[in-house]
Known about the structure:
Strand content: 15-25%
Number of domains: 2
Bound molecules: coenzyme A
Helix content: 40-55%
Amino acid sequence: MSYRTLLSADQGAVRTLTINRPDKLNALNREVIAELSVAFGQAAQDDAVRVVVLTGAGPKAFVAGADIGEMAALDPVELRDFSRRGQALMRSIERLGKPVIAALNGFALGGGFELAMAAHLRLAADNARIGQPEVKLGLIPGFGGTQRLPRLAGRAAALELCLAGEPIDAQRAHQLGLVNQVLPAADLMAGAMALATRLAALAPQALRGVIDAVVLGADMATDQGLDYETQLFAVLASTADMREGTQAFMDKRAPVFGGR
Ligand code: COA
């Protein structure tokens, strides 16, 4: 499938989606959001895809936010719809059931960082700038930032970023737990691919189990979350991949996971 605002490329079981509006610093307009929704839906359906890497085209930006020019022309009802569509996209990424790695190759601002927060892992180039500057436009984050940011980094950091609206550098984002790793800009994509390739060799159902337990479990009471973990654990114990993983360990060989 071809897109107007995205590039899609497969390398083994890793699909790389690149938001491709570099002249607008990959800002998220309605078309990008619609195409990302289709692209992630397809990645979810395709068993050959085990990991998705998400990045932005060009040397300057992952995504510099929602498209301000487009937003400025929307009426309140259209803006509400825009927020809901963005939120639905972010939730579908978070619930994809396969690891999504965001490679932050520059500005990750506003809706761009909200998109990155919906991914399961974030790698940042050392020159990345990260923030929620919506307040400077008279707005608040509208794609889930007010909910995911405090869950990731705590209330104090979330309020600092959203109230002051000042971007932070990749090192500070790492200290706050907002990104998993900081890499030299020139090494970012190689680092993201290496991590994605490692994950793609693991048992897909176990990866799904981790994502479901952590993402859904975060919204449960502890006892309920522990019970959910046990149920997922028990289901995984009946998979062919669990038998393969344990047998390979005993045979002192690398496992080959078929996804069943
Ligand atoms: N929406 C729409 N267009 C955007 C955009 C956004 N969020 N961010 C950047 N662009 C566009 C600029 O308007 C410019 O387009 P033009 O060449 O047609 O004028 C182009 O991308 C390049 O951006 P520019 O501002 O010239 O680059 P810069 O290096 O001087 O500054 C930023 C980079 C990221 C600091 C600046 O673009 C910026 O502040 N962007 C908005 C960030 C923001 O508020 N995001 C949250 C939105 S809710």
